[in-house]
């Protein structure tokens, strides 16, 4: 059953349904668009229903297609779980594993760790998608979402991966010219470089320090939706930025950036979110443990510097 063509066709169909694109689904599976189209047509013939509306510009699900998509996702999850139970996945996990992560964390840490994981467990089939938004694990078919902060959506389980606070920092040039803030409240008087990581509040900084929590509304004349941009501006001396310590650890060690209010930080640990059902999967558990180990003390650990 594990290699039944019907199972493979259902996987292809779920990918087409998720992306509403034959081209994107073909690219994800390393097939041609023609191959995907033929397999979906065969699946429609096998099931005796029309699954998709096709035009030259778009693809959409029929009513029967929505029903099949819902059942197919549940069937495929059960197939993968059965494969887990039939094999010693602690030593040799296999099967598909879909992971999402934010752009910066994904590029700098998760992607190279996935490369190491693939070398360690060659039978895994891994899809890593880097997105600057909060994904819907169930609807979009992900096994894990690696995120900073563990928002507790209903039905999700949070697995703690690594401690990683956000810290305040600025270039020595800026601080020499404008002075070094002595309290959280004084941040409101400074140029602050603001960006939003995924669904974080924009322009409101909440920090934990010796006297408890402090909140300040910050402003500045430069803002962006990309962390690389605001970090560049900080190094250029334009203001104070709040970002993950892992993101600026190298710059702090080199002295191009300096901690501001070093006793204050914003807890922002790294978590792996999974659906309750997926959390029981052996390959998901193996992935979580591998991420924990590598982010704590591996070559691409968050605290490398």
UniProtKB/TrEMBL annotation:
<keyword id="KW-0238">DNA-binding</keyword>
<dbReference type="InterPro" id="IPR005119">
    <property type="entry name" value="LysR_subst-bd"/>
</dbReference>
<dbReference type="InterPro" id="IPR036390">
    <property type="entry name" value="WH_DNA-bd_sf"/>
</dbReference>
<protein>
    <submittedName>
        <fullName>LysR family transcriptional regulator</fullName>
    </submittedName>
</protein>
<keyword id="KW-0804">Transcription</keyword>
<dbReference type="InterPro" id="IPR058163">
    <property type="entry name" value="LysR-type_TF_proteobact-type"/>
</dbReference>
<comment type="similarity">
    <text>Belongs to the LysR transcriptional regulatory family.</text>
</comment>
<dbReference type="Pfam" id="PF00126">
    <property type="entry name" value="HTH_1"/>
</dbReference>
<dbReference type="InterPro" id="IPR036388">
    <property type="entry name" value="WH-like_DNA-bd_sf"/>
</dbReference>
<dbReference type="Pfam" id="PF03466">
    <property type="entry name" value="LysR_substrate"/>
</dbReference>
<feature type="domain" description="HTH lysR-type">
    <location>
        <begin position="5"/>
        <end position="62"/>
    </location>
</feature>
<dbReference type="GO" id="GO:0043565">
    <property type="term" value="F:sequence-specific DNA binding"/>
</dbReference>
<dbReference type="GO" id="GO:0006351">
    <property type="term" value="P:DNA-templated transcription"/>
</dbReference>
<keyword id="KW-0805">Transcription regulation</keyword>
<dbReference type="GO" id="GO:0003700">
    <property type="term" value="F:DNA-binding transcription factor activity"/>
</dbReference>
<dbReference type="InterPro" id="IPR000847">
    <property type="entry name" value="LysR_HTH_N"/>
</dbReference>
